[in-house]
Amino acid sequence: MRASPSNTHHHLDGDELTTALHNTANHRGIRLRPLSEAISALPVRRQAPYTAWRRRQGQAAENPPATFADLVATVTAFADPLATGAAHGHAWDPATRAWQAT
After folding, report:
1. Nearest partner of 50 among 75, 73, 71, judged by Cα
2. How many other CB atoms are there within 10 angstroms of residue 54's CB atom?
3. Model confidence over 10-39: pLDDT tens digits?
4. Would you call 32 helix, strand, or coil by DSSP?
């Protein structure tokens, strides 16, 4: 039986992702910075649209975070270590939504 995309989770290699991100940034001539710095005001500004989106999704959304700030926290927990290089030697664990040492 084939797993559906909604119940398939993959560990992501921090070394590979960090290298790819930094190589792309170098190629494009841009300086990386943590995503959390770039979107610091977003959780407050986008809470109302996020609440409306969750309401429209009904049963279609599987366990979305309660607040937009929670969603942003998960995304930045994933992205910031890639930008800073802290994800080297780690793998992203989708079950815990955290980088784990490898």
Report:
1. 71
2. 16
3. 889 999 999 999 999 999 999 999 999 999
4. coil
**Of 97, 93, 79, 94, the residue nearest 18 (C-alpha):** 79
Q: What pLDDT digit, counting tens, does each position of 72-89 carry?
A: 999 999 999 999 999 999
Q: Where are the domains of the chain?
A: 10-101
- The encoded tokens of residue 57 equal 């999704």
pTM over 0.90: no
**Whole-number percent of the chain with pLDDT over 70:** 92
Instruction: With beta carbons less than 8 A apart as the criterion, state whether 90 and 27 touch.
Output: no
The beta strands (E) that lie in the chain are given as 12-13, 90-93, 98-101
Alpha-carbon distance values, 35 to 2, 3, 21, 29, 62 (Å): 35, 32, 13, 17, 25
